[in-house]
Design goal:
The complex is a heterodimer.
Chain A lengths: L12 H16 L7 H7 L4 H9 L4 E7 L2 E7 L5 E6 L8 E7 L3 H6 L5 E4 L4
Antiparallel strand pairs in A: 1-2, 1-5, 2-3, 3-4
Chain B lengths: L4 H23 L7 H22 L1 H5 L2 H13 L1 H8 L2 H8 L15 E3 L9 E3 L7
Antiparallel strand pairs in B: 1-2
Helix pairs in contact in B: 1-2, 1-4
The chains are: A alpha+beta, B mainly alpha.
């Protein structure tokens, strides 16, 4: 999936759906960082919790960034669960990098700009 | 800043697991995994959050002060390895947006270690002030 992060294009329903498809595909295929499971174990998190966060309409989805590239964060304000996904970049395939609980996932992502909300929670 | 005890526990645990388990494991590897950036960012932001909570509700958070100080010390012990392993990625976290120098965890590469003068004493960590030219 090609994502033009810096365009002024709004995140239309269709664009959001493409992103969700990419996230679901990587989750189904278990495209995880090498020690992803170790980190889940340390943090007492399960794949079922992550699946629920990904599919929940009340989860926020936003883009943020580190020096090594963009990230997409999925955060559910009720469970506090946060999942970090790195989109495909040059030779690196897309994959889920880590998961943890966060008191305020929006504040976290805003701390690593440029931040851009992709989808707010749908009640 | 208002927060629940559950939220405080979440952030304290993020800092603790990051400092005691996850960062040391990444730092011991012979190569640099891309997920190290995610874990470093989490440690930095969780420490920000703890700092803000200590400032806004010192009574509630006071009981955890000792734990946070112990973790800070552990963090400072990892200083050299973090700087070496993360390279340019580490200072980029403070270049993304303004991070006050009171948040020393963004300035590990500028901290000076002053060894203790006595054999059993502990080292002192100093972050010099920067003054406008």
């Amino acid at each position: 999936m090609f994502i033009d992060w810096d365009s002024s294009q709004e995140w239309s329903e269709r664009y959001q759906q493409l992103l969700l498809n990419a996230l679901n595909h990587d989750f189904r295929e278990r495209n995880f960082s090498r020690d992803f499971y170790d980190k889940l174990r340390l943090r007492n998190l399960t794949l079922a919790q992550l699946r629920s966060t990904l599919s929940h309409s009340e989860s926020y989805i936003a883009r943020y960034s580190y020096d090594d590239g963009n990230r997409v964060g999925i955060w559910n304000p009720k469970s506090y669960l946060f999942i970090a996904w790195k989109p495909r970049f040059q030779q690196s395939p897309s994959r889920f990098m880590t998961a943890f609980k966060k008191a305020n996932g929006i504040d976290y992502m805003q701390s690593f700009p440029p931040f851009r909300e992709i989808r707010g929670p749908k009640p | 800043m208002s927060f629940s005890s559950e939220e405080f526990q979440i952030e304290l645990e993020n800092y603790q697991i990051g400092i005691e388990n996850i960062l040391p494991a990444y730092l011991a590897e012979s190569y640099t995994d891309q997920a190290l950036a995610d874990e470093m960012a989490l440690v930095l932001h969780s420490r920000d959050w703890l700092e803000a909570s200590l400032a806004s509700a010192p009574r509630n958070a006071q009981q955890f002060l000792w734990t946070i100080e112990q973790l800070d010390h552990h963090f400072l012990m990892l200083k050299e390895t973090i700087i070496k392993k993360l390279g340019a990625l580490y200072p980029s976290f403070r270049q993304q947006m303004l991070r006050p120098r009171s948040h020393w965890w963004y300035y590990l590469d500028e901290i000076i270690v002053q060894p203790s003068s006595s054999p059993n004493g502990t080292s002192t960590f100093l972050l010099p002030l920067t003054l406008p030219a």
